[in-house]
Amino acid sequence: MSAALAEDVPTRLFQRAVALEQAGRGGESCAILERLRSLPAPPAGFHALEARVMARMGRHQQAEEAASAALEQGAEAAPLLALRAQARLAQGNLTGGLDDAAQLVMAQPGDGPAQALLGDALLRAERFDEAIFLHGRLFQQAPEDPNAILRLARSFLRAGRHAPAEELLALAEQRLPNVASVAALRAQNQLLAGNAARAEALAEAALARGQVDASVHSVLAHALATQQRMAEAGRHFIAAARLAPHDEYHAHLAASVLGTETSRATPGYVASLFDGYAANFDDQLIGLGYRVPGLVRQAVEAWLPGAPAEGGVLDLGCGTGLVAVALMGLDLPAPVGVDLSPGMLRQAAAKGLYATLCQTDIITHMQACPEPQRLIIAADVFCYLGDLAPLVHCLGMHVMPGGALVFSVEQGAEATPWHLQPSGRYCHGRAPLQHLLAEAGFGRVTMQETPLRQEAGQDIPGLFVVAMH
Questions:
Q1: CA–CA distances in Å: residue 367 to residues 267, 292, 319, 354, 392
Q2: 329: closest CA among 302, 353, 356, 303?
Q3: pLDDT band for position 5 (cuts 50, 70, 90)
Q4: CATH number assigned to the domain comprising residue 119
Q5: Taking the mean position of all CA atoms in its chain, how far away is CA 81?
Q6: Which end of the chain is more exposed for a tag (fewer CB within 10 A), N or C?
Q7: What CATH number corresponds to the domain at position 434?
Q8: pTM for this one?
């Protein structure tokens, strides 16, 4: 092969990769990029193409890295800023995504898609007034555009302004009468506004029009569950799971209805559930008479006089930080908070009471946790785990002598280790739990039978547990 021909091979490979990417064949394009990446000097435009291909394939971290490399090399900024913003937002990096989107708007102040991206980023960051302003301006510019209508409607819905959201969603449904996601969003808005019967009627009407979709079945199931019609709700949770077989949220709820004794709720279910609650979580729990943070405070005050002088405090499943609020003023270091939900962690961060916050599964965190802890708290967390044995044994190794593990569970039958309830939460029996804690090395255990909160006007029976070495 001549030197000239050899030098031309990377160029021809790159052109082939570009053509495949433009044809929507990202996997084949990616295979060529792997070959080009090994070259000492990849062709010009390599990183920009790699960013587009990685984004198309949903490989967000690689898309972000490639877009950053392309920007450093002076590639055209606007499309790469948009791509990197979307990649960062998909990974939960709201600050980085907002920065990129804002730079994009400053570079292209009159560009509608850039403003829409910034509005979407602001909405993800729960900066509702700013999102409404931007999406409202786009709606004024194109009042007939269904996408503009839906963006503004979602902003109002997320802000809890359900009346203007309903007006816009009704308009969107007129423009897009056969799009199931629009009908589902309109029903969801009514459900969040407290009108479960109206949400039920809207979802039923969508199904009658032939809009058989997981989102419609899901909102109908939640509307029925809110009205305590659990048998009817169960059929629709099962339908939603079958229509969206890879959706962990609906899979777990279907399992709870079918009586499948899974060992834990999947991380995807927990993150999805609590992201949806995050903005109004504290107010909702207070309205349900949530007692656990107060019980934690009382237990820790009683334990503190004989507690170890050193060691950290760990708040597993910290949520919005209600436990950290309850512990304020006590002679303890700032806790480390762990939670799966980025929405919950944003609320916790705003309280400014944690030493650090970690977005991860609590079992994963404990397996990687090197330091013994003075105090570990898990308030209303174990109800999303059935088989507690792996976690409790791990906690037994991480609570230092004299330290305490403080947690709550929903109470089940006395001798039943665990049971997945129709609510999607697990309950645990007192005797197996006592035995498990003893096996894990906790020699002093107290269990208090107490209501944890209310649901549909009924007390949720629970066990509040303090376990010490």
A1: 16, 26, 20, 21, 11
A2: 353
A3: very low
A4: 1.25.40.10
A5: 25
A6: N
A7: 3.40.50.150
A8: 0.73
The SS3 of residue 462 is strand
User: Terminus-to-terminus CA distance in the chain, angstroms?
Assistant: 74
H or E stretch including 373?
strand 373-378
pLDDT in tens, 291-340: 888 999 999 999 999 899 899 999 999 988 989 999 999 999 999 999 98
Residue 279 falls inside a structural domain: yes
pLDDT higher than 70, residue 6:
no
CA 466 – CA 379 distance, rounded (Å): 11
Residue where a domain terminates, one of 74, 108, 125:
125
Q: Would you list the DSSP string of 60-112? A: HHHHHHHHHHHHHTT--HHHHHHHHHHHHHHTT-HHHHHHHHHHHHHHSTT-H
> What is the per-residue pLDDT for 7?
52
The domain boundary, picked from 104, 125, 146, lies at: 125
CA-closest candidate to residue 385, choices 294, 269, 223, 282: 269
What are the pLDDT digits (tens) for 64-79?
Answer: 999 999 999 888 889 9
421 in a structural domain: yes
Lowest mean pLDDT: which of 276-285, 394-403, 433-442? 276-285
Structural domain count, the chain = 2
Per the prediction, the chain carries an average pLDDT of: 88
Question: Which residue, among 84, 106, 107, has the nearest Cα to 97 in the 3D structure?
Answer: 84
Distance (Å, rounded) from C-alpha 52 to C-alpha 33?
12
275 vs 359: CA distance, rounded Å: 12
Residue-level length of the chain = 469
287 in a domain, yes or no? Answer: yes
